[in-house]
Amino acid sequence: MALLRCRGLRKEFAGQVVLDRLDLTVDEHRVVALIGASGSGKSTLLRCVNLLEEVDDGTIELDGEDISDPRVDADRVRRRIGMVFQAYNLFPHLSVLDNITLAPRRVHRRARAEAEAQARDLLDRVGLGAKAHAFPDGLSGGQQQRVAIVRALANSPRLMLLDEVTSALDPELVGEVLTMIRDLKADGMTMVLATHEMGFAREVADEVCFLDAGRVVESGPPEQVLGEPTQARTRQFLRRII
Ligand code: ADP
Ligand code: MG
C-alpha cells in the first residue's frame, strides 16, 4: 500500500520552477533514494512532503489523506513524519536526553518519565546509552547525527525523510550513520532519503529516483537506474560523480 503519494507537484521560487509535475509513490516499508545534482530539487521535495514548503500545484497524500490541503493542521501531519537534515541541528543548550524528549513532551504531551524511558531505550539500541546526559558539543559529528535520527524516531513516525544526513560528516564517521539507517530499514521503516552515497543507495534502496531540474527523469530498482540507466541525463550524472 502507498504510504506516500505525490502527484503532479509543482513548486516555484521567484519564477524558477524547482519541482515540475513531479510524481512519487512510496509504499509502506520501502526505501526510496533520491539522487541528482545539487539544485535538482531533492531537498525541496522532502521539505514539501514535511509541509515546510507549500506546493504551488499537485497533491501529497500520506496514508490516503491529502496533506497538501492548506486547511490541514501541519503540526499534526509532522508528528507522523520524522525528518533529519544534513547539518545536525540538535539544540546545543540541551542534553541528548532533553533533545530527544522535547517534542514528545511538548507536542505529544507525554509524561517526562515515559518519554525518557523511550528515549533511553532508543539510545541503548544505537549504542549511545552512555551519552544520555552529554551535550551536543561533547559528541562526534556521527554521534550527533545519530542522536538527531533518534530524536526523529522518538515521535514514532510512519515515514522518515533523510536529507543527505552523511554529507557534513568526516568520512570515518559516515559508516555509523549508514549502519543506523540500514537497521531502520531492517525494522521496516518507510524512508525517503536524498543521498550522494551511490554505493549506499544501491545497497539500501528498493527504488532509486533520479531528479533533474525538478523532474523524475528515471526511477526503478537501484541495479537498473545506477547500473543500466536508460536516460542520457542519468548516465551523464553518474559519470560525473563516480
Ligand atoms: P537539491 O537538494 O537537489 O540540491 P534544492 O531543492 O535545495 O536542490 O534546490 C532546488 C532549487 O531551488 C535550487 O535552484 C535552489 O537554489 C532553489 N531553492 C531552494 N530553496 C529555495 C528558497 N527557499 N528560495 C529560493 N530558491 C530556493
Ligand atoms: Mg539538498
UniProtKB/TrEMBL annotation:
Kindly indicate whether the keyword ATP-binding belongs to this entry: yes
List localization entries. Cell membrane
**Could you state a single Gene Ontology molecular function term?**
ABC-type amino acid transporter activity
Annotated ranges, domain ABC transporter: 4-238
Entry keyword set? Amino-acid transport, ATP-binding, Cell membrane, Membrane, Nucleotide-binding, Transport
The family line of this record is: Belongs to the ABC transporter superfamily.
What protein name does the entry list?
A: Amino acid ABC transporter ATP-binding protein
Organism for this UniProt entry: Micromonospora lupini str. Lupac 08
